[in-house]
Amino acid sequence: MSLPTNSVPAGDIRDRLIISLDVPSVEEARALVHRIGDAGTFYKIGYQLAYAGGFDFARELIGQGKKVFLDLKLHDIGNTVEEGVRSIARMGMTFLTVHAYPQTMRAAMAGKAGSDLKILAVTVLTSYDDNDLIDAGYAPVPAAELVARRAEQARDIGIDGIVCAATEAQAVRGIVGRNRLIVTPGIRPDGSEAGDQKRIVTPAEGIRLGANHLVVGRPIVKAADPRAAVEAIVREIADA
């Protein structure tokens, strides 16, 4: 069976790797970005860094010509999400995550109207497996089924893209079509520790399964030579 093709336009292959700045301070993030240099073009800022001065640092990165993925996984009443997204859209971010609940997705799409910001809906966190979903009260829905259901809802709402485990990317591509983004965390190069991720694949596998962008954090952040780690992953993406 042939694997799905994705719809990423021709461009800088480095943009397909999103480097997760999983560090506790702006100083460490700035030092890491400096060490990576022009090998990296796209960075993710999540809770840890965002609440330690990361919003201002995001603006700094954008000013340097980098792309920024703000990973806040917003989920609140519709008006709160809409107004929050409207503020974020003015910051120049490339991607923003929200949880894939219909009301939240609709509000986010309304809030980003007129901007270039892309809203990504998070289906099921890659640190969750079926047992975690049972603990959360989703029984008897397995992770793959819940991912598919939320992907269908996101597609119908017109969301820009989906965040899902690469193990589900092929199925999600079949649901959302060629023109929506698929962004996959839980990527681990060969030899890397899984950490708290439970549904993981290598960079090459992620691309072959239909992902547009791969999110990689600890294998780069904790590498002895982060630039070399980035370059190796980008080569693997290009080969795939």
TrEMBL record:
Keywords: Decarboxylase, Lyase, Pyrimidine biosynthesis. One of its GO terms (biological process) is 'de novo' UMP biosynthetic process. The gene is pyrF. The keyword Lyase applies. Residues 16-233 form the Orotidine 5'-phosphate decarboxylase domain. This is Orotidine 5'-phosphate decarboxylase. Substrate binds at residues 22, 44, 71-80, 126, 188, 197, 217-218. One of its GO terms (cellular component) is cytosol. Catalyzes the decarboxylation of orotidine 5'-monophosphate (OMP) to uridine 5'-monophosphate (UMP). Homodimer. The active site is at residues 71, 73, 76. InterPro entries: Aldolase_TIM (IPR013785), OMPdecase (IPR014732), OMPdecase_AS (IPR018089), OMPdecase_bac (IPR047596), OMPdeCOase_dom (IPR001754), RibuloseP-bd_barrel (IPR011060). It catalyses: orotidine 5'-phosphate + H(+) = UMP + CO2. HAMAP family: OMPdecase_type1_B. SMART domains: OMPdecase (SM00934). Pfam families: OMPdecase (PF00215). One of its GO terms (molecular function) is orotidine-5'-phosphate decarboxylase activity.
